[in-house]
Amino acid sequence: MKDFNNKVAAITGAGSGIGQQLAVLLAKQGAHLSLSDINQQGLAKTVELLNSYPVKVTTTTLDVSDRAA
After folding, report:
1. Which end of the chain lies in a sparser environment, N or C, as judged by fewer CB atoms within 10 Å?
2. Structural contact between residues 31 and 8, judged by C-beta atoms closer than 8 angstroms
3. Who's near 53: CB < 8 A, 6+ residues apart?
4. Where would one find the signal peptide in this protein (predicted)?
5. Which pLDDT does position 56 carry in this prediction?
6. Which residues pair with 61 in a beta bridge?
């Protein structure tokens, strides 16, 4: 598998499902994360799951299907 240590990954839909699991997988591999989702509570849950990993995490609540966002 590719080395993600100290890389930065941007993940949309990170508040649940595949996006959330991808965030956990990449954090386990040392990637810093920029996460977005329309669901603020879901993003907060994802951040909780990532607290045990020594990576930087930023979040943005937005609807990527809205061009004005």
Report:
1. N
2. yes
3. 27, 28, 30
4. none
5. 98
6. 37
Q: What is the pLDDT of residue 1?
A: 61
Q: Is 46 exposed, middle or buried (0-12, 13-18, 19+ CB in 10 A)?
A: buried
Residues in the chain: 69
Segments making up each domain of the chain, as ranges = 8-61
Under a CB-based contact definition with an 8 Å cutoff, are residues 21 and 9 in contact?
Answer: no
Task: Please list the pLDDT of the chain residue by residue as tens digits (69 residues).
Answer: 689 999 999 999 999 999 999 999 999 999 999 999 999 999 999 999 999 999 999 999 999 888 886
Q: What is the DSSP letter of 25?
A: H
Tokens representing residue 44 in the block: 């907060």
Which residues partner with 36 through β-bridges? 12, 60
